[in-house]
Amino acid sequence: MNSSGGKIFSLLADLVLFIHFSLVFFLVAGLLMVWLGWVLKWNWVKNFYFRIAHLLLIGWVVVQTLLNRDCPLTICEDYLRVKAGEAAMYHRGCISYWLDRFLFYDCDPRILNTIYFCFFVLVVLSFVFVKPRWIKRKVSREGG
């Protein structure tokens, strides 16, 4: 692979990593904000679109886990790294890799799967205790 082509694939892999971490941040910070917003009476945490996006994203993570599939973002990033002439980074998955790298904690994938499921349960419970503001249909006042 030529040098400029390798750099492009490497930059694309970094972009995928950034997107991946942004989604993880959205999941974790989103749940914290919902509960903090409930306590502090922040109305925005009840936004239907925010809440449904949050629920669907963590639900998708749990389904991937139950099917024993790697995250497509992890697969994509590894593919781009290999195309860039770099070594694939994730032999155990993206989250496991970064936990090990930053926290020096070798985490069994079963523990992460349990954490994902528990996190999903917390998000579902947030729908029960911090009810989202449902979309209201506008009623036409015209006769007919």
Main sheet properties: none
The number of helical elements comes to: 5
Strand content: under 5%
End-to-end C-alpha gap = 68 Å
What is the alpha-carbon Rg in Å? 20 Å
Q: How helix-rich are the residues, as a percent range?
A: 55-70%
Label the overall shape: elongated
Helix/strand order, N-terminal first: HHHHH
Mean pLDDT, to the nearest integer, reads 84
How many strand elements? 0
Q: Regions with pLDDT < 50 over 5+ consecutive residues?
A: none
| Class computed from helices, strands and strand pairing | mainly alpha
Specify the oligomeric state: single chain
Total domain modules: 1
Walkthrough of the structure:
The chain has 144 residues and is mainly alpha-helical. It has one domain. 69% of the residues lie in helices and 0% in strands. The protein has helices at residues 3-40, 48-66, 72-83, 94-103, 109-129. Helix 1 runs antiparallel to helix 3 (72-83). The longest helix is centred in the N-terminal third of the chain and has 38 residues, at 3-40. The protein is elongated, with a radius of gyration of 20 Å.
